[in-house]
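Friendly challenge for the regulars: who can give me the structure tokens for this chain first? No prize, just bragging rights.
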Amino acid sequence: MKNTLRQILHARNFMIGFITIMIILFAVSIYPLFNQGSPLDMIGLGTFFKPGTYISMYDAVETAPTYTLRLDGAAAKRVEAKLPQADRESMKRWLVAYGIPDEAVNTDDLNDLLNLWNNTYDPDARPAGLTSAFRKSVARIDTVLAGLLESLDVRVYTEEPESGEMRETAQIKDNQYINVSEVVNTRQLWLGTDNFGRDAFKELLAATGVSLKIGLIAGVIATVLGLLLGLVSGFVGGIVDDIIMFFANLFTVIPGFVLLILISYSIGQEQRGATVVAAVIGCTSWVWTTRSVRAQTLSLRNRDHVNLSRLSGHSLPRILITDILPYIASYVVMALILQICSGILAEAQLSMLGLGPKTTETPTLGLMMFWGMTYAAHQNGAWWAYFPVILMIALVSFSLNLMNTGLDQVFNPQLRS
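First reply, four minutes later:
Bragging rights claimed.
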């Protein structure tokens, strides 16, 4: 036993997968302690807020102290943020039409572009090849640039409760800054928000935990069913073996995922909790485990130690548990890992079709993909609503398969180097 554990701990693939899963479980368990509340709480009054740090503008103006800083390039950054690439291309098009060589206009160098524009642009000019509508759009860009380059103070006015008149209460200059740590209300959204305005990072970790739970329940059910049926079928044989293999062949002929869809649909949305979905997945995934365990049991049932147990009058359960199960225990563990992985992927597939757990109770990785697809996150450029989910599903599946590969290298002599 000690030698086997030593070999497992020295199996590189197993340890990489195991450590990765432990890190994921640690994050899933610890993060809710720092960010309490339901992961389905809608904190954003809108959809697909970008990742970043959000601070209260009210508190920043009213309560946070201000500091005067002189930062190089601050004005240029403001202009760059307000001047998208499309407007820069329009400026270049006007300059080239006006007579500036194409290679002399670099839209990536904002300072050179602005200097060239300020020295060249003439609102009364009519370069050839440009429509009136385009010249008006360029004039609009020039007006915006003029406003950006003029550093105007921002004034804050408050309405008097009695008279209703507006009174100036604050004046914000372009070189005034606040310390984010001194703002009373801030929120760090590592992955922004989803289509419902929920913290996507918090939701992702909670969904990962639920999906792992579903995979574990489904894997245990499928492995236990497959183990019991495979042991009985392979050892008893006869009519019992024929009956069990008849149902196994029947489940093999009917595609498992189609059967899973039909059962999930017949249950109904209100009754489909995470545990119910896991049980359904487990009850439809036992076939290949049963076949494999049966094949190994057939090779073991006529060995000397098994025949000796029969002659000693040992009961069927004792023979299966003490004389056969220890010889296939390593395979059972590997089958469990694969069944957990299959359960996670099956839930994701079901949820993508709208047949996963009830959406109002708990998030899963599949449900997050379903919400992102339904609300067209990919078309809105909201990569944070679906891409991290894809990475998490791939990471969990890859880690579990690495663990299985590492165990296979330990227990399968033909794969040992």
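The radius of gyration is 33 Å. The first strand starts at residue 52 and ends at 55. Your move, everyone else.
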